[in-house]
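step 3/5: co-fold with magnesium ion
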Amino acid sequence: MIGVTVLGSTGSIGISTLDVLARHPDRFQVIALTANKDVDGLFDQCKRFMPQFAVMADEASATRLSQRLRDAGIKIEVLSGVEGLEYVAALDSVVYVMAAIVGAAGLLPALAAARSGKKILLANKEALVVAGALFMREASLGGAEILPIDSEHNAVFQCMPANFNQGLDQVGVSQILLTASGGPFRQLTLDQLKGVTPDQACAHPNWDMGRKISVDSATMMNKGLEVIEACWLFDTEPDRVKVVLHPQSVIHSMVAYTDGSVLAQLGNPDMRTPIAHALAWPERITSGVKPLNLFEVARLDFEEPDFTRFACLRLAYEAIKTGGTAPAILNAANEVAVASFLEGGIAFTEISEVIDSVLDSLSSGQADELDQLLAVDLESRRLAEQIVQNRV
Ligand code: NAD
Ligand code: MG
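step 4/5: write tokens
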């Protein structure tokens, strides 16, 4: 039995992960489940999966979960806070850690998994955007293995030769082609984008996801974060990573080779495919995903992305080219701006404006040490909050 910790188990990726794990009860054992404040959600998952540990980042929620479990006569150890998350990410009995907390909040637990040499199923792209160099270094020192869960990076991983770690030039890879659906607003004009609501932004045409990443998909910041994620995972420069709009979301990404070959990974848009792939790699297991019917798909379209209407994508490319702490600043400002948009504060088009102002005001510095990165994250959040306050 392979021990698994699911960080962020009550979220969209967490729920899909448990769905796949439940299909293979003789292969996997759930050791720990974690959430932030969703006591009801974690209580139900505890009853069903009977993990040894349940962690709630929020202290008050942890107390309520303990009480609920005690009342129900269920014996599960409840932990709280970042320390609790780090503890269950590093347990000896755990082989796989699904890192599916949303935002920079996922960084410290994912780092704990990296330092203790786990197989990390990495969905939490913000961890790499904030601390790519540090995270890759700690994973390598700790003997951890990173398996990408983001559908694009999982697709790229599947299309790469096994020895891609030797360097992309060495193995004949000329480009990484990240596909993007373009989100719900692909065809709207800048003027139309000004008036869109949070619910419209969260109604993604092809994927059912958490609210933060849904807004990121609508602004195309999600693709920008993914360009940065690809640079770290596949040790390459941003110029080698191209974004291709592909509204059907059937091709999940591609790898182009120097001989003219382009390899693609296709499938229905359902995160259980990359999750099952990473859980079983190098083997294959069932995921519950419907087989792809190419006759139903019928056609595949491709377009160039528009960096004017989708300024977030441009800002992300600029941040990774600047390097240092610029991606951490970008990410923090984005988290604050998106939260404000979701709460009815700033307008959709102001998200990129807030990020642009924060990036303009703070200069990029060294990004090697955790303390520096956490300080930059905090400072960028404070500045972004101020700019947002002045606008609402
Ligand atoms: P979600 O909002 O649905 O779930 C987030 C999970 O993290 C929940 O369990 C929540 O309780 C927990 N959480 C939130 N804040 C926390 C905090 N401060 N401390 C500890 N736990 C906290 O998000 P999601 O859509 O499942 O996305 C999770 C991650 O996976 C994100 O980084 C996202 O970019 C990435 N991702 C998601 C998808 C998708 O299809 N949903 C696809 C690719 C990548
Ligand atoms: Mg993705």
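step 5/5: annotate
The chain has three domains: 2-148, 150-304, 323-392.
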